[in-house]
């Protein structure tokens, strides 16, 4: 997979390190000399492209024609949106992810502007805080851009009725997908119908807001 990151600040460099660790082909576009110097201490120089992510010439220098994903995470919403629009509609990039800096601009991050997934950190934090007030054992990890779906983690209360039961006996809502069970901090289990729930299991799931409340009730103490 080939990924281009527009913006080599803290967010861009952190994402870049994660991608390199997972053997993803990477290019980082950055227009600040001082930041390029910092990036050279972390990344191979051939991964770095000096220039603006809003410039088609710079994007071409980053080999955008072969990119699968563009991630725009500069500190400027204008730059992130323009880079997204150019990537999607001029170069037909399959997947475009963009960072929202000012929550008031979130409404602009649409498919019509070329954004497939928007990352609104302020909204995510507020959502998690609000959710934690109602649900003791479940927390949101990632809010998806489409619909009301999100990826969440629920921790099984040792006194919950679900403990020692098979998943197929728990009446899991049909619109909820169990992704994985993290057990004893070392074991990752792919959930099956006959998988037995253990106390303190961490369960990753995909669900909407209403269903997450149901899942919280299943794995907490009634």
Number of domains: 2
Please indicate the percent range of residues in DSSP E strands (runs of 2 or more): 25-35%
Shape estimate: elongated
Mean pLDDT across the residues is: 88
CATH H-level superfamily title of the largest domain: NAD(P)-binding Rossmann-like Domain
Count of DSSP strands: 11
CATH C-level label of the largest domain:
Alpha Beta
Q: How widely separated are the two ends? A: 45 Å
Radius of gyration: 20 Å
| CATH-derived architecture of the largest domain | 3-Layer(aba) Sandwich
Give a topology summary.
Layout: E1 2-6, H1 10-21, E2 25-30, H2 33-40, E3 48-50, H3 56-61, E4 69-72, H4 77-89, E5 95-100, E6 117-120, H5 121-134, E7 138-143, E8 149-155, E9 177-183, E10 187-189, E11 202-208, H6 209-219
Parallel strand pairs: 1-2, 1-4, 2-3, 4-5, 5-6
Antiparallel strand pairs: 7-8, 8-11, 9-10, 9-11
